[in-house]
Amino acid sequence: MSCEDKPDLNFKKAVSRIGEAAKKGARIVCLQELFRSQYFCQTEDTELFKLAEPIPGPSTEALSKVAREKKVVIIASLFEKRTPGIYHNTAVIINADGKIAGKYRKMHIPDDPLYYEKFYFTPGDLGFQTHDTRFGKVGALVCWDQWFPEAARLTALSGAEFLFYPTAIGWLPGEKEEMNQAQHSAWETIQRAHAIANGLFVVVVNRVGREGKLTFWGQSFVADPFGRIIAKASADKEETLVVECDLSKIEETRQNWPFLRDRRIDSYAPLSARFLEPSSSK
After folding, report:
1. Fewer CB within 10 Å: C terminus or N terminus of the chain?
2. Cβ proximity of 93 and 100 under 8 Å
3. Distance from C-alpha of 208 to C-alpha of 4, rounded to nearest angstrom
4. Spatial distance between the Cα atoms of 92 and 75, rounded to a whole number of angstroms
5. Coil, strand, or helix at residue 133?
């Protein structure tokens, strides 16, 4: 969805869209990254910390009521105020009974032009988790996390059937069209690769519209465990996609592409290093 500068109106819209999705048969509903507000990380402004809230807090309380009434699981990305001076970009998983099933604090924090997130967010400390819900095992990561195969793999290894990525990504001003298309293609490709490498469903929910200097590219999509895009939204229109995911495809795909079986876990310890110095030749 698109967002305006009034959080209350964005929240009401989100609740309305959750209702629409539930009416169409949705069981798990994911909202875009930081859906309550416009994407505020385009500037560094201490006044914007006022957008943050505790978890549990007002938004989770209201969404819990919606989840309970509509009998849906809700994945909501919020600006979490943990304590004065410590804030997180957090995805909350609310079960269909209205109880919080868990939360994930964004681990990878970008610092790019118009994405000044390091000013606002402390890196997450909850690790990569799967949350059991009434309608499936849910792993939630957030936006910049989507570029890191380690995050997807560790979440998959914890039992996830779905990887949800609440997202806010768009075109930078002044970029050439060729570069824009290359960036979008890379974004889509790497997430489809997560679906393939881990044999699960990947669900990407991006915002649309222009906010400040950014024009968000939308194109939310769902990829199946084979990496095929089975549903995709437009680049510039608000949409609610309801996508049927056959969970039996996970086991079927992993039996035929047994990447998890053939991992050489005895040889991966160097992944924990920041960088591997070249070995000297003799």
Report:
1. C
2. yes
3. 11
4. 6
5. strand
**Rounded to an integer, what distance in angstroms lies between the CA atom of residue 257 and that of residue 198?**
9
Token reading at 252: 């079927």
Task: Classify residue 256 as exposed, middle or buried by CB count within 10 Å of its CB (0-12, 13-18, 19+).
Answer: exposed
Structure-token pair, residue 62: 């209201």
Model confidence at 280: pLDDT above 90: no
Q: Does the model's pTM come out above 0.85? A: yes
92: closest CA among 118, 66, 120? 66
Give me the mean pLDDT over the 17-32 stretch. 98
**Domain 7-262 fold:** Nitrilase/N-carbamoyl-D-aminoacid amidohydrolase (3.60.110)
For 55-90, write each residue's pLDDT tens digit.
999 999 999 999 999 999 999 999 999 999 999 999
- Domain limits of the chain? 7-262
Mean pLDDT of 190-211: 98
Cα dihedral across residues 278, 111, 55, 94: positive or negative: negative
The residues near 145 (Cβ < 8 Å, ≥ 6 apart) are 106, 107, 108, 151, 165
Residue 175: per-residue pLDDT: 86
| Interior/surface letters 231-244, b for 16+ CB within 10 angstroms, e for the rest | bbbeeeeeebbeee
CA distances from 72 to 31, 52, 130 (A): 13, 25, 17
